[in-house]
Structure formats: C-alpha cells, structure tokens
Specification:
With 443 residues, the chain is an alpha/beta fold. The chain has 12 helices and 15 strands. Strand 14 and strand 15 form a beta hairpin. Helix 7 runs parallel beside helix 9.
Length: 443
Amino acid sequence: MKRRHFLKTAATIGTGLVILPSGTRIGKAAPSNKLNVALIGVWGRGLAHYDSLAEENVVALCDVNEKRFPDALKRFPNAKTYVDWRKCLDQKGLDAVVCCTADHTHAFIANWSLNRNLHCYMEKPLAISVEEARVVRANWLKKKGKLATQVGMQRHQFPNFNRLREMIHDGVIGELSAAYAWGDRQIRRSGYPPAEGQPPEGFHYDLWIGPSPFHPYNPSYFSGGPGMNCLSWNMYWDFGTGQIGDMGSHTMDLVWNVIDATLPTSAEAKGEPFNPEVTPVTCEFHFENPANDWRGPMRVSWYQGGVFPSSPKEYIDLKKIGHGAMFKGSKGFVICDFVSRIVLPFGDNADLTYYKPRPKDKILPDIGHFQKQWLDACKNPSLKTACDFEYSGNMIEQLLLGLVAYRVGRKIEYDGAAGRVTNCPEANDLLRRKYRPGWTLDG
C-alpha cells in the first residue's frame, strides 16, 4: 500500500469514523511514523543534521554543488537529488524540509515550504530583509498548530537560556530596564571580489546566486570549511547581513528568550562609514521595545566588531566574553554567555531579600535536542518549538531594522503593525530587496 493510503486506512480502522484529510500528518501517537524529509544544502550546516535525520526518511537531497551528493547518498541512499530547490520542493510525498543554504535564499525556501504545507527547519537567519521576515512570519501564523517550524539557533538548547529567564522574571535584578548583546567577530572586506576563474564542473553558480543581483564567480566566496563557509560571503549586502544576522541571531537569542518582545518602536545605529557593498563590522544598534504585561518599556542594544556596552564595574571586562549578553535592572545586573551567568547586585539596597527563586517544581524543563524538538513537533504540531517562525521572525525583523537605520544614518520610528518607518520615507525602500527576474518570494 502507498504510505498515505495506508495512514488514511489505518486511521479509519482505528476509530471506525476518523479520516485524515489529504496532507494531514499523523501525530506522536504513532511513533513508527517517519517523516519524508528534504535536506536542502547537504554540506556545511547540512552535515550537522545527518544524525538526527537518519531516524526519518530522507527522500530528497538538494545542493548546487553536485560533488556533494556522493557522500550524502552514502547516508541517505534512497534520496532523489536536485540542484534547484524549487524543483526539490515539488517532489511528491514530502512532509518536511531542512534548509541549510546560503542566507539570501532562506526566506524563499521557508515561504515556499509553507505554501506547500511542509514543516520547515530553517538555518539562521530566517531572512535578510524586513519584508522577508514579515512575509514568512505572517504565512506561518496562518498555519500555526498545523505546521512545525524552527530556526537554527541551536544554542537555545543550553539550560542557561532557561535559567536566565527564570532568574530575571523572578526578580533577581529587580525591575528590568535594558538589555545588551554583543559579538566581537571581525572579518573585513573592501567590496565584492572581482571575477576570477570559472565555477568548478558540477557547481551551479547561477543557482547559488539565486534571487540576488548577479556578481561574477570568485573562489573566495567558497573558501571556508564546513559549517564556516558562510563567513566567506555573508558580509556582502546581497548575500547576507554580516555579524548582526549571523552570530547576532544566536547571541541576541539570549536576550529575546527573556524579554518577551515583539517589534520595536524605533531603531538607531552608529558605526564605521557606510560601504554600499559590505555590511559594517564595527557598529552598535539600539532599539526601543514597548512595555508588556510583566515589564516596562526597555532599551535593547546590539554591539559588534570591537565595541561593547559599558561595564557596570571596572573590574569586569566584558571584552573577555566574545559573544555575550547583559541585563540591567533596578537592583543590579546579570552578565552571561551561552552556558554561564553571574549576578551583580548593585547599590546599598540590593540585598537580594526581594529575590524569590521559584520552587523546584516550577523550574523550566530543558528543551532537549534542538533538532529533535522540531521533529517531534512535525509529528504533533500542537507541540511548541523554542525558535519558531514567530519568535525568530520578530527577533530578526528587529535586528534588520537596525541595519536600515544604519544605512539611512538616523534614528527611525517604526510602526510594527503596518511594517513601515514613519519618519524617514527613504528608509521604507530599504525594508525590501530587489530580486532577479524569474525569482519570487511567494512561489
């Protein structure tokens, strides 16, 4: 029997009444059910998914470099291969997609997957323009509870994320007023590299360019090792967002998991002079986030490329934390990296008697294996994932607004409901990207 007919028949026999509509995935109650998964981008970050996907049916492999297929097929010998992700997504019988392509195609593959009612795991960043983030988030919100989504901010599985949330929500630093995150990676480029050589045989360079404006081939775009090759191209405006969307997605996640923010009301930035080809290395970004039901309005900041927030004490050197975060409250500070934190009570009245840690039975549970959390939710979409397209879409939209403010050189006021800058008309043109003919975000 064909797989879908078997599932439909089994559901009917089991109850005498229930029939699963076409395209509906059975839930966790059937542990033997394996997902039919497409892995798009089989090298680089794709390698990090091999083990978790080995428990499912990987039925499609897609990569612009055909030389990556032999090794991938050793792990997933029954998969069909594609060089064009658009054709891959139309393979019959797919349930889910894991995307590990270059950043400038992420929002496209996410949105196309949602349009086909496919669960989607998308490596970060979810998008490289404000419009892309909004389109993908809005599409998923229409299907929330039916499709499982996750953005690859896998450090979120570290227990420290939940410990930070508990401590700050329980009042360890009093009333929260500001949060800061930073990354000290510094990779400088002067501009797009000139044409050099030809793409190797089997490498479909035009498909790698995809929706972005064409730039001639240069091997320096692909000089990095697996998992790090993004550092060879993501600093260019047409291919990525530089540090703020790269490690910013991971490190700002420390803050985002605590503050329960949606979208900012303003964004501003200052840093090195604007380069129309390369995103800034040294820069700082500041956002105003409105109050919610447990905290007041607060300022959220991102620093990169050698600039840091001011340390609360001269004997604490924040520069020793390459990627970290800090929370400021009325009674002190919390300083952290991905796996550790310190509490710094501040002032004569900061005696910690006001801090009431939650009882052990209220401690937030560990989320476990990050990819498996998503796979479980694919089989039972009522389960929540830590970094779904709403949570991650809001966060990356805020960070991308910082890049817009940097490009126009002034503070921008933002209407998050409408998705428009209200005080700087030219900024609205920078909320979206222009795509090459033949490429559409909503396919």
